[in-house]
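To the wet lab folks,

You asked to see what we're planning to order before we commit. Fair enough. Below is the target structure as tokens, and below that is the sequence we designed to fit it. If anything looks off to you, flag it before the synthesis order goes out.
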């Protein structure tokens, strides 16, 4: 008998029941692999979706907060106007049209909806909308909380629907005093400013999410989707509905339930929801909520789960495809092994061993190559995502810098108003005198008055140019900057406050001009922030003194802003550059000024530091690279 006869026989095929068992095992493995991949993809996609929702919700809440608080000062400023107080003293004997037109001009300048004046009984006696059919004049608003708060001597705030216009708005009010020297003096009227909320909602509509705001009664009064507005987040009881109707906050709106249903909690502060009715009933959402303590509101964001479902399907299909490829490869390999065993049944053991090693090496190389390609793809995706994130961060930072500049302009509004009112009053007086002199044929006197008017208009143009210079956006272009000229510009913005506060200025720098390399607009903003903080810190100081210094040290320029105020508490020194950290009273600032200033210095290659002086007061120092003096710099001017 041939000794190799056994090897010539073909391998026995598997029985039918074993083949069916293997087919069942492979099918169950496919289903399990696809299900597990879908679950992992769902968790990852939900986690990414929540991170995006938290960032969008935080920025939207900060935007709404800043939008409303920038009007907080307006009723207080208007309440001190002489024209308002004079008309309130005797409204029956005066023509209300000059005051109506004045309020309308302030409404247009400030960009608010309405400005109106209430007497002590809550009746509207003057309003910016005196010429409209739905004017507030003659209406009584004594039932509104903004009236009761202000007539009691405080500052009032209120949100709701207007009685006449039925427009949603936020109201700021302030008492008007004709005599505030008496210990038992009472306010004689209330000045009210109404701000519409449509602009904020229009910005929300651009986001890939649904945003809405609810009050303490869970009423949706602001929403990116118009059909959600004036709905109740959850169904109201009869007692709640009667209570809301009594306040007339939302007029006679039906306050229909929104139909929201909580499907499952996800993580702390988030949950998966859907809507049983309404415009959002066609999809499921990830819901996050953020409290706005300044107004007692809740801001909600709804992110559609469509990307999560898509990620699940893609992951399941990819896992199934990979599983199929692996299974098919295993089957083909098994068949090849059978054929090879049949062809090489008579070969020596060494050849079989060599062939097996070669096959294993090929599989290993293929697997490593596939892993390397996948790793390269993931690395490319991560690089691209980081590039997009850096671009978004730069854009957000520039928007915060511009918002901080506008906030500073708001704080300077009272002083600038005083700066402009003085020349205006003088121009009117000179113009009236010139008319009388011309009537008397005293032309030399009239010419002198006209010359004074020209000088005053030039002074007002300088003030307007300073505001345009400070409010423009940065070009992010590096250039040589004169330190002394930059400091002088920043001081010009505070001329009124310096004079009124009787603040002495000490300038400590060399006679030659010091140059630094940086961005002119952003360096101006940092100096304005530091000088404004120093002036605020010196309120109440008997002899306020502001020291501004600049000198070179080791190829660097050191700029210092020093005050003689109370200084910075030691426990706050480590946190003053943190975002939203502030020691000011609520409504006086967001705590972003020093944080943005520090970030600007980092971008310019410099550094911003804060210390306390041994003799009292705080010192802020700016360190920037010194720029060598060139012929172009010597002949340039500070624009």
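Sequence we intend to order:
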């Amino acid at each position: 008998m041939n000794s190799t006869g056994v090897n010539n026989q073909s391998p026995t095929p598997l029985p039918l029941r074993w083949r069916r068992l293997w087919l069942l095992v492979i099918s169950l493995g496919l289903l399990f692999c696809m299900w597990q991949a879908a679950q992992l993809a769902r968790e990852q996609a939900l986690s990414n979706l929540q991170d995006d929702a938290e960032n969008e919700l935080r920025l939207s809440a900060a935007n709404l907060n800043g939008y409303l608080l920038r009007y907080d000062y307006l009723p207080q400023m208007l309440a001190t106007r002489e024209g308002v107080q004079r008309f309130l003293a005797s409204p029956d004997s005066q023509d209300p049209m000059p005051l109506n037109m004045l309020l309308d001009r302030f409404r247009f300048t400030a960009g608010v909806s309405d400005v109106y004046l209430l007497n002590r009984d809550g009746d509207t006696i003057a309003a910016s909308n005196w010429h409209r059919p739905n004017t507030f004049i003659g209406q009584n608003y004594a039932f509104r909380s903004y009236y009761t708060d202000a007539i009691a001597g405080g500052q009032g705030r209120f949100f709701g629907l207007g009685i006449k216009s039925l427009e949603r708005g936020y109201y700021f009010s302030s008492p008007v005093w004709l005599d505030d020297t008496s210990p038992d003096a009472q306010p004689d009227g209330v000045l009210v400013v109404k701000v519409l909320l449509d602009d904020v909602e229009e910005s929300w509509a651009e986001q890939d999410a649904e945003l809405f705001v609810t009050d303490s009664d869970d009423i949706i009064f602001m929403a990116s989707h118009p059909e959600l507005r004036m709905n109740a987040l959850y169904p109201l009881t009869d007692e709640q509905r009667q209570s809301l109707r009594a306040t007339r906050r939302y007029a006679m709106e039906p306050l229909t339930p929104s139909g929201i249903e909580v499907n499952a909690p996800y993580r702390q502060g988030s949950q998966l929801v859907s809507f049983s009715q309404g415009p959002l009933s066609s999809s499921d959402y990830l819901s996050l909520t953020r409290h706005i303590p300044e107004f007692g509101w809740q801001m909600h964001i709804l992110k559609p789960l469509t990307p999560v479902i898509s990620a699940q399907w893609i992951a399941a299909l990819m896992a199934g495809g990979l599983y199929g490829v692996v299974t098919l490869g295993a089957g083909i390999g098994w068949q090849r092994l059978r054929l090879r065993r049949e062809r090489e049944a008579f070969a020596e053991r060494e050849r079989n061993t060599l062939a097996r090693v070669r096959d294993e090496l090929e599989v290993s190389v293929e697997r490593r190559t596939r892993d390397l390609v996948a790793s390269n793809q993931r690395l490319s995706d991560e690089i691209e995502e980081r590039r997009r994130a850096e671009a978004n961060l730069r854009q957000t930072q520039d928007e915060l810098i511009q918002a901080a500049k506008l906030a500073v302009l708001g704080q300077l509004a009272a002083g600038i108003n005083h700066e402009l009112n003085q020349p205006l009053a003088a121009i009117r007086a000179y113009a009236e005198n010139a008319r009388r002199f011309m009537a008397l044929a005293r032309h030399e006197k009239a010419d002198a008055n006209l010359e004074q008017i020209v000088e005053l208009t030039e002074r007002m143009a300088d003030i307007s140019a300073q505001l345009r210079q400070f409010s423009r956006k940065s070009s992010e272009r590096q250039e040589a900057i004169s330190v002394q000229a930059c400091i002088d510009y920043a001081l010009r913005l505070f001329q009124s406050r310096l004079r009124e506060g009787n603040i002495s200025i000490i300038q400590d720098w060399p006679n030659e001009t010091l140059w630094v390399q940086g961005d002119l607009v952003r360096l101006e903003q940092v100096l304005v922030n530091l000088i404004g903080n120093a002036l605020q810190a010196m309120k109440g100081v008997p002899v306020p003194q502001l020291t501004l210094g600049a000198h070179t040290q080791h190829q660097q320029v050191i700029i210092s802003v020093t005050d003689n105020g109370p200084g910075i508490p030691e426990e706050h020194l480590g946190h003053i550059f943190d975002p939203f950290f502030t020691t000011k009273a609520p409504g006086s600032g967001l705590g972003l000024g020093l944080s943005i200033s520090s970030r600007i210095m980092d971008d310019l290659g410099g550094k911003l530091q804060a210390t306390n002086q041994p003799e009292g007061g705080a010192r802020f120092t700016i360190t920037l690279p010194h720029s060598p003096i060139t012929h172009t710099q010597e002949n340039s001017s500070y624009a």
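Structural context that might help your review: Residues 1-9, 635-639 have pLDDT under 50 and may be disordered. Residues 62 and 292 are 9 Å apart (CA to CA).

Thanks,
Computational group
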